[in-house]
Specification:
240 residues, alpha/beta, Elongation Factor Tu (Ef-tu), domain 3, Rossmann fold, 2 domains, 3-stranded antiparallel beta sheet, 28% strand, globular, FAD-bd_FR_type, 2 iron, 2 sulfur cluster binding, FAD, flavoprotein, 2Fe-2S
């Protein structure tokens, strides 16, 4: 879905999202948070999977319609200016969230290496789009028997880390792969960030429906994904 963003006073950051009203009625009642897929000068693109009342209602939006959108919301990814090579690890619709990171990396002449995971080859959203930005893409799928954590770990350790000096790591879309990314980032001292996906009510920090736990030193505390996130330092997020 492409929307006119010329009224925005500034460009959003990769990882930020918009809270979108799906229909002109009160059913569905709650808005849906959609991460930005592509960021252009006067337009924004959103990539989503139709799987419930909200996204089904959005399929009825037509060219020329006016959308009720709130955003950009939250903290986005920080792409380090000195980074020469970045690693993306994404699963399912999390690939769409990280696509804007690949776009930003390309614009600052950094190379992107991506491990994309999905149930089937057809579900590997945005793989071709990442390749257009010069990304080296590794595809793993459930149907191919290559998406389990042990295989992805072996892939990264044997086919990626020995050949690329990874300056930063970004992940989204899978708790098990995010835990793997957290482990790899720790073992190899790679700074990393994670975009968390949570159900949201207000996206203004008032309802506390999207709380997650982070660890800061010895203190473990709850934070709101919509306000303090959705992007967090990878090492701080508690994943159990």
């Amino acid at each position: 879905m492409t929307v006119d963003s010329s009224a925005l006073p500034f460009k959003p950051d990769p990882g930020q999202f918009f809270h979108i009203r799906c229909a002109g009625t009160y059913s569905p009642f709650l808005r849906r948070p959609l991460s930005i897929y592509q960021i252009h000068e006067h337009t924004l693109e959103f990539l989503y999977v139709v799987k419930g009342k909200g996204t089904t209602a959005m399929t009825r939006i037509r060219k020329g319609d006016t959308l009720d959108m709130m955003g950009p919301v939250g903290k986005g990814f920080e792409l380090y200016k000195q980074a020469e090579t970045v690693l993306l690890i994404a699963r399912g619709v999390g690939i769409a969230t990280l696509a804007a990171v690949a776009q930003a990396a390309f614009q600052q002449k950094a190379h992107c290496v991506a491990v994309l995971s999905a149930r089937t080859e057809e579900d590997l959203l945005a793989a071709e789009y990442l390749e257009e930005f010069g990304a080296t893409v590794y595809k793993v799928t459930d149907e191919g028997g290559t998406s389990d954590v042990s295989h992805v770990k072996q892939l990264i350790q044997e086919d990626i880390l020995p050949f690329y000096k990874i300056d930063s790591l970004y992940t989204c879309g899978s708790r098990r792969l995010s835990k793997l990314a957290q482990s790899i980032a720790f073992d190899h001292q790679i700074p990393g960030e994670i975009a968390l996906e949570e159900h949201m009510g207000c996206a203004m920090g008032a309802c506390f429906a999207c709380v997650c736990d982070i660890q800061e030193g010895r203190e473990r505390k709850s934070v709101r994904v919509c306000m303090e996130g959705p992007v967090f330092p990878l090492e701080k997020v508690v994943m159990e």
